[in-house]
Design goal:
Homotetramer. One of its GO terms (molecular function) is glutaminase activity. It holds the Pfam family Glutaminase. It catalyses: L-glutamine + H2O = L-glutamate + NH4(+). InterPro entries: Beta-lactam/transpept-like, Glutaminase. This protein is of the alpha+beta class and 313 residues long. It has two domains: 171 residues, 3-Layer(aba) Sandwich (Beta-lactamase); 133 residues, Probable Glutaminase Ybgj, Chain: A, domain 2, CATH 1.10.1500. Helices cover 49% and strands 12% of the residues. A five-stranded antiparallel beta sheet has the order 2-1-10-9-8. It has a three-stranded antiparallel beta sheet with strand order 3-5-4. Strands 6-7 form a two-stranded antiparallel ribbon. The longest helix is centred in the middle third of the chain and has 15 residues. The radius of gyration is 18 Å and the shape is globular.
């Protein structure tokens, strides 16, 4: 496999940005939250953290801040597993999570029919892990999540976008409906605080570099490569990578697993997290999305990086 450093030059990464930039015109930004709907779709940035060399290469709009959205589910799940252990957390999700698509109508018979198809990174699972964090930490839960996000992303500047949070909690009716449905089924004990924490964590502002750092931790067996401190146990790290490989990109997870063969997680804010075990962490930002909520230019760019580096799990 080519050395990661050979692709970490500004010139080569900028060439890949130029090659894929036209894809930003073909998708649409998320508009189910009004603040997301005014984001400029013609943006593309990438950061790659070389674990072996402890170096990060960037190109395009790698330093631009954007909403973490669904990628926050990974961080919340990791923190919950660290605090409670993966056996208890997975058991909670298996008992209470239903696998329904982001765009599906909330019908009782639909959710009942699908209740045994567990997706550990979908919205119902995220509400459950958020509720577990709330139970552990009470009103301090978001600060704990924010602090952990800053640590695992090696980015002390990650912060809450208050405007986005207010827009999300007022307009994302699907999540409200799902939360109250889960409470009605005695899956969630409380709703109001869980919704607040859920929307706050989704409204954290990160960069491609933040996500590349997160990917580098996962690629480095749960050890932060910048200070060699273990943050995630080996067993838990393997579990998280497996989940990202199987359910990380919404309804297209199976297709992208076949195409890209890396653990990935996308977010409707345009972010894309990927890790190549023992090699590198990758963070990409491009907010123009396909019909399933995945970044068009971002996925195309990631495919080029994988091809050039000959990255496989």
């Amino acid at each position: 496999m080519p050395c990661v450093r050979e692709v970490l030059t500004m010139q080569k990464l900028e060439q890949l940005i130029d090659k894929n930039f036209a894809e930003t015109a073909h998708g649409k930004v998320a508009n189910y939250i009004p603040i997301l709907g005014i984001v400029d779709p013609q943006q593309l940035g990438i950061a790659i953290y070389d674990v072996d060399e402890d170096e990060i290469g960037t190109a395009g709009m790698a330093g631009t801040r954007f909403a973490i959205e669904s990628i926050a589910k990974v961080i919340t799940l990791i923190l919950t597993i660290k605090r409670l252990g993966h056996k208890r957390v997975l058991a909670e999700l298996e008992n209470g999570s239903a696998d329904y698509s982001l765009s599906s109508v909330l019908l009782d018979d639909e959710l009942t029919e699908q209740v045994h198809r567990v997706n550990y990174l979908n919205n119902s699972s995220a509400l459950l892990t958020t509720a577990l964090i709330d139970q552990l930490m009470g009103q301090n839960s978001f600060n704990a999540l924010l602090g952990f996000c800053r640590e695992i992303c090696n980015d002390p500047c990650i912060s809450l976008n208050e405007r986005l949070f207010r827009s999300a909690i007022m307009n994302d009716k699907d999540i409200h409906a799902l939360a109250y449905y889960m409470k009605d089924k005695d899956i969630l004990e409380t709703v109001d605080q869980t919704l607040i924490t859920y929307f706050m964590q989704s409204s954290m502002m990160v960069t491609s570099q933040s996500l590349a750092n997160l990917g580098a931790v996962l690629a480095n067996d749960g050890i932060k490569p910048w200070d060699n401190e273990r943050l995630i146990s080996h067993e838990d790290n393997e579990l998280v990578k497996k989940l990202l490989t199987t359910v990380g990109s919404f309804e297209e997870s199976k297709e992208y697993t076949i195409k890209i063969e890396l653990p990935i997680k996308s977010g409707t804010g345009g972010g894309l997290l990927a890790c190549a075990p023992q090699k590198c962490g990758i963070g990409i930002f491009s907010p123009a999305l396909d019909q399933h909520g995945n970044s068009l230019a971002g996925m195309s760019l990631l495919q080029d990086v994988v091809d050039q580096l000959e990255l496989v799990v």
